[in-house]
Amino acid sequence: MDDRRNSREVVTILFLCLLWYGISSSSNVIGKMLLSEFPYPMTVTMVQLTSITVYSGPFFNLWGVRKYSSDIPWGYYLRLIVPLAFGKFLANVFSHVSIWKVPVSYAHTVKATMPFFTVFLSRIILKEKQTWKVYLSLVPIVVGVAVATLTELSFNMIGLLSALASTMAFSLQNIYSKKVLHDTGIHHLWLLFMLGRLALILFSPIWLLYDLRRLIYDPVTGESADLNYYIIGLLFLDGVLNWFQNIIAFSVLSIVTPLTYAVASASKRIFVIAVTLLVLGNPVTWLNIFGMTLAILGVLYYNKAKYDQRTEKESLPKYYDKSRNGSSSSFMVNGWTGNKQQLLAV
User: Residue ranges of the Sugar phosphate transporter domain (predicted)?
Assistant: First the structure.
């Protein structure tokens, strides 16, 4: 029975991963096709935020996702939730600009630098130190992206800077999202819904003043944007695929270990790069492919180094320290003292 149950779990995980890879690749191909014909990355972002807002509520209720309480203090809401919504919008816009300006394969290679930004920002914001293995894993990532950049035949500076800005914004969003999830206990899918809805509300006036005016009358061409059925269909499909991709990613995360998820995510990036190279056919050199491969291998090594660091931290000896407060609920770990809840938060 146990073997049969394990076999079913393996089959389920493989099916979800293949579905995740297929949807993510399709989303990137559709996004590139859309932005090539419809160069309005802010509008594409707003459609995706609208999809999150419209589909998430009914689907999460149907799926039985735990609802969040509405008693989040306004001060905390303004201090963290609102900036996170700004970050989500900006990260998505920069991501779409990068896909618009450079090939999808190159944009995803640049996004492989996320561990570098995560380590750097965590050191500054959280004062978090890493092991030498984690720092060493950043070397092939940076070198690989540098090689891919120098050999990229379709290089565009705006595309490179947008991809880097998007990666840094996503790294910041991940760091502060973890803090919000820990502080409030909100389910992370409801946090996705909350941030998407808030970003849609906050940036609708900017979209109305900037992109909508250009859609109605473009000062460069002197004409309105050509919103035919093909463009509308791609916009709708892009929004659905982007939303569904988040749902599949959560499903995978909920049934595998963090290391397995990290490896699956890195493998997904390889799959997306390969599929977009085949389908979209952007020109590449063997040196360019070498740079992409080196960067992805660096990401895999980074994930293994972080897992080893987390495992080592969890296996540190714990013992009671009654001299500080006389309570048996106080623990000391490597000189750090706190109660059980604080220890679990570390």
Answer: 12-303
Contact assessment for residue 248 and residue 16, using Cβ atoms and an 8 Å cutoff: yes
Q: Answer yes or no: pTM beyond 0.70.
A: yes
- 163 near 116, Cβ under 8 Å? no
10 Å Cβ neighbour count for 25? Answer: 22
Digit-coded pLDDT (tens) for 26-45: 999 999 999 999 999 999 99
- Rg of the chain's alpha carbons, rounded to an integer? 22
Query: How many CB atoms neighbour CB 106 within 10 A?
Result: 31
Rounded Cα distance, 47 and 104, in Å = 20
Range with lowest mean pLDDT among 82-96, 181-195, 302-316, 317-331? 317-331
In terms of phi and psi (left: phi > 0; alpha: psi -120 to 50; beta: otherwise), the region of 337 is beta
CB–CB of 109/273 below 8 Å?
A: yes
Question: Which helix or strand (DSSP H or E) is residue 337 part of?
Answer: strand 336-339
Of the candidates 287, 243, 233, the one whose C-alpha atom is nearest the C-alpha of residue 60 is 243
Q: Which two tokens stand for residue 269?
A: 């990036």
What three-state secondary structure class fits 333?
Answer: strand
The conformational region for residue 138 under phi > 0 = left, psi -120 to 50 = alpha, else beta, is alpha
Contacts of 223 (CB under 8 A, 6+ apart): 217
Query: Are 296 and 145 within 8 A, CB to CB?
Result: no
Q: Report the DSSP beta bridge partners of residue 319.
A: 332
Which positions ≥6 away from 158 have C-beta within 8 Å? 97, 101
| Residue 56 · residue 189 · CB < 8 Å | yes
At 330 the three-state DSSP class reads strand
Angle (deg, nearest 10), helices 258-280 and 286-314: 170
